[in-house]
Amino acid sequence: MKKILSYAIALVPILLLISLLLLVPIVFFISLVPNNYLPVSPIWIIEGLIGILILGYGVRLNKLPINLKPKIVYWAVFILLIIITGTLFLCFKNLLIIFVFCQLFLPIIYILWFENKFEGVKRYIKKSRNTFCFFNLFDSSFIGLYFLLKFIVQTWGKNIENFLDKLNVPQDFIEPIVTVLLLIILFILIPFFRGYLAVRKYRKENNIFTSSGKIYWNSNLKSFLSSILSICLYSSTLLQSDTYNFITKLVVCLISMSFTVFFWAYVLEDIDRGGENKEVVKSNWLLFGLLSTFLVLLDQIESDLIDILTWFLPMLLPVLIGEVNNIIPGGHSKSPTPDMKKHLYWLQIMSFNTLFVFNIVSSISTKQLIKDNQIEKVNTFKVFFISLINKGSSSNFTLGILVSAAILLISMVIAYGLSRIMVYLIRRFYIETSNRYFN
Predict the structure, then answer these.
(1) Does the keyword Transmembrane helix apply (predicted)?
(2) Average pLDDT for residues 52-64, to the nearest whole number?
(3) I need a labelling partner for 282 at 20 to 30 A (CA). Which of 106, 187, 212, 435 fits?
(4) pLDDT tens-digit series, residues 260-319
């Protein structure tokens, strides 16, 4: 019974989404026909089509080489659905529309479980059953907590305001603090615990232990980012105006829950491999941190940074990379190979050309403006693209970094083509046409 309950909690959102996707085309085509041309109510046409679908798959199920017990259960549930539908029609007509979506759960479950084409899906669900159960319970608690807090604010809102007034704390002081705390809780703490506990739950469920030299930083990060996305989906639904009623918000949140099945498929790849190599992950995270710092500096002090790099980077590369063999632990020195010399040559010419192209673009698009009796340098090219992208909902700081990264990427592409042309001309003049310079 516990196993059946965990499957129910884990699969209800995704089953609801699949049912909705199957029913939307049917409802759409029925809506194209005027009601006076329909022999019966549209709801009964939908019920009839669902009944034919369930009956048709039941016939196929009887032909499958599986145990008799699942077949008996299928037909028993089918009969039960007919009885419930009739009861709802006679006594609770308003609930019949909601129940329509649940009727398709029966064939969908059997198709996923007994059709060989979906063996991979079945294996994925079995491995992640408890994890999906945790996700849905966690998200349900989050949604329930929202409605509880909303009820408390609506009921005791005046008392809360009176209490704050007695504290004699200015409102313009309280609001920023409350806003920052809510953002930290919503988009840092809740996603962190949701993602971390899900990874831990999955590893425990599938007996995946941490091997020597392996870590799960990337898996936790992916789970954290997917949790942020889920929280954003729930928040965008729950924080809508009261034009949407409780049932509508609840159904949309259930559909949003189903997306976890797709997000989690991306996360568990690294977990199933037993984690990631510790040294590789540390190197990648450090490289990402350095790259992020470089992009921030490039956005804030563009001209000064480019001047520094233009002077020092082409000269420092032969020392930083070309002589790294001199600091090998144990005193064992290695001599550079021809591939290393070629790699170093390309790094030097690419770095020089990238900085050269970027500097030209920056110089052409930078203008000096007088603002508050001070001369400021403004990159009009960057300002134009930020204004083009920004619709008032994004941070100019973030957009500035993204635009700087895009300009740098374009400069690298141009620099690559320029480097190829330069190498071709230099090689043709100094090597291929004469032996005066190289033996």
Answers:
(1) yes
(2) 89
(3) 187
(4) 999 998 888 888 888 888 888 888 888 888 888 877 777 777 667 777 777 777 677 777
pLDDT of residue 328: 67
Total of domains in the chain: 3
Give the torsion sign (CA, 40, 42, 46, 47). Answer: negative
Q: Are residues 424 and 291 in the same domain?
A: yes
34: helix, strand or coil: coil
Q: pLDDT, tens digit, for every residue of 74-95?
A: 899 889 988 888 887 777 766 7
Residue 366 half-sphere exposure, CB side, CA atoms within 13 Å? Answer: 14
Calpha distance 155→159 (Å, rounded): 9
Number of Cβ within a 10 Å radius of residue 14: 22
Question: Nearest CA to 266 among 198, 211, 214?
Answer: 198
CA angle 365/371/374 to nearest 5° reads: 100
Backbone φ and ψ of 374, nearest 5°: -130, 145
**Host domain of residue 37:** 1-115
Phi, psi angles (nearest 5°) of residue 73: -60, -40
Please tell me the number of Cα atoms within 13 Å of 333 on its side-chain side: 5
Residue type, 135: F
Whether 426 maps to a domain, the answer reads yes
d(CA 302, CA 400): 11
Assigned token pair, 394 = 């994004």
Are 136 and 241 in the same domain? Answer: yes
Q: Are 136 and 78 within one domain?
A: no
For tokens 């710092």, the residue is: 293
DSSP state of 407: H
Q: What is the distance between the alpha carbons of residues 357 and 413, in angstroms, rounded to a whole number?
A: 10
Residue 48 has pLDDT above 80, yes or no: yes
Q: Is the per-residue pLDDT at 132 higher than 90?
A: yes
In this structure, how many other beta carbons lie within 10 angstroms of the beta carbon of residue 291? 11
Residue with tokens 């698009």: 365
Could you tell me what percent of the chain has a pLDDT over 90?
12
Q: Are the beta carbons of 136 and 10 closer than 8 angstroms? A: yes
Closest by alpha carbon to 78, among 94, 98, 59, 95? 59
